[in-house]
Amino acid sequence: MARKKNNKRKKKTVVKAAPRYHLPVTKHTEVEKAISTAQKFNQSGQAEQALDLCLAAIKVEPKNAECYLTIAESYERLGQFEKAHDAFNTAQKIFPNFLPGIVNHALMLYAFKQVELSLRQYDHALSIDGDFLPALQGALTVLSDLRRYHRAVIIAEKIARIRDIESDYLELAHLKDLAGDGKGAIKTYLRTRSTSKNPALVDTYLGLQALAHGEKDTAINHLSSALSSNPRTGYPYLYLAKSAPTSLSLEEINQKVLESKDKSVLDFQVPLYFSLAHLYEKSGDYENAFKNFSTANNMVCSVVKDDNEQRKERAEMCYSKVKALPFPNPNSASTDKPVFVTGLPRSGTTLVESIIAAHSEAEGLGELELIPALEPSINPDNLNTIKQAAQSYLNAYPERVANKKRLVDKSIGSVPHIGLILAMFPNAKIIICERHPMDTAWSAYKEYFSEGGLGFTYSFERIATHQKMYHELIQQWYQQFPDRLKKIRYEDLVQNPEINAKKIISHLDLPWQDECLNFHKSSHTVRTASVEQIRKPVYTSSIGRWKLYEPWLGELKLQLKDLINQYEAG
Length: 570
What we know:
Blueprint: H1 29-43, H2 47-60, H3 65-77, H4 81-94, H5 99-111, H6 115-128, H7 133-145, H8 149-163, H9 166-178, H10 182-193, H11 199-212, H12 216-228, H13 235-243, H14 250-259, H15 265-283, H16 286-303, H17 308-323, E1 338-343, H18 349-357, E2 362-364, H19 371-374, H20 384-394, E3 406-409, H21 418-424, E4 429-434, H22 437-445, H23 460-480, E5 485-489, H24 490-495, H25 497-507, H26 554-559, H27 561-569
Parallel strand pairs: 1-3, 1-4, 2-3, 4-5
Helix pairs in contact: 1-2, 1-3, 2-3, 3-4, 4-5, 5-6, 5-7, 6-7, 7-8, 8-9, 9-10, 10-11, 11-12, 12-13, 13-15, 14-15, 15-16, 22-23
């Protein structure tokens, strides 16, 4: 009997090349000197001279990886992304598995906002050495930017084990909470607190997490514990002033203000002045409340620059891309899950998100703010980049919400990107929240966005400028996409909640559920300035609340006159 031939080929054993941490010695002395001089030129801002030296050097030694890495740095400093990218790739071909070079490549890609490409390089480095700390740290940054929190937790756990320092464990706890593992986050916080040299900081984080999850009593306990531990920031006072004002006294905060003169402006002094302002407001002393709100905002303005011009430039750049795109876009994503709820800060976006999130077939994802991070990777001349950006966005959706029909991204940063959003997701639903200009402005002025975030909210002039810019931008989108944007007025929603909530749910093509009006009873996580208000049923007392401060708001009212007239006219 003839033997059967064995056609199965033996699998080749793939031998991984060893990781490299140092470059080989340069063969030619003149090339070595040229590279050394070029590196000094790069450091001193003379990238063109560095480039000339290295381009001459590779003619002598064409397979010198260090020379190509120096060329890549020169092109990066000159803002020439493609050439820098090519030079890094050439260096990797010449000398594979050189981990510092791969990480520098990733850093360059990240600097040019090519986040997905950056992550690929970090992944490549980690496939060679899974414990290479620079690659772990870089990957964690990119994964956090891309809102891929489940994988970020895995990386953060490894970093914490390797370095074993408190800040890494605090970052790990925060990421666990963002990934939906609230219990795991608390466990990590408590373990960190047991050995912490700054237990007040850990208690503050625990208090913030409890507030986000609607556990007010637990939050108050943690924040009160922070105060008893002599906190090194003013944030526990601020959060308690807003959540449990009776637990503090004006005398206590005034004394802390006097003691804070030599401490951090943004971390200590400003939160204390905001705390005072909120306590005076609760007591009905609006004049002193205004004085302290004004003092706090002026202090922020002295440190934090006005970001209106940067925002305008980014919006114009986004719009120029949109003008070059076809609608509908053939390279878009076909999903109908994305819902974008956006508007000015304090315009009711959290309320609208919470109404939707209370529906059994929907989920609120909070402020992803991911579209702005993906926008730089979109090239109007390459429509495939739109599809790639869309997939990057969808990859941020956690597995636990896979069965939901609608997923809500409540990012105020979405407004400049509405055109790009519709190019990426033609079936997306977009809801624009509007509120009276004075209520929106004053409510934003009263808030301290952590460490001076949202730089346009800390002076009447900045706020008015931003509102005018925003109005022009949103009108532009209304004109271009008249049938795609659903407008919701805050005043209409709170005065007639059932009618308007039903309009919102109908807009999302979902069946009505009475639970949508009981959003305040849900366990929906809220990490915005509206964390207190959203735990209550719909109320109307915030309409016209700016009028309590009208004697001191003449300047703001004058600057917003035209917008006020337009809004009140309907």
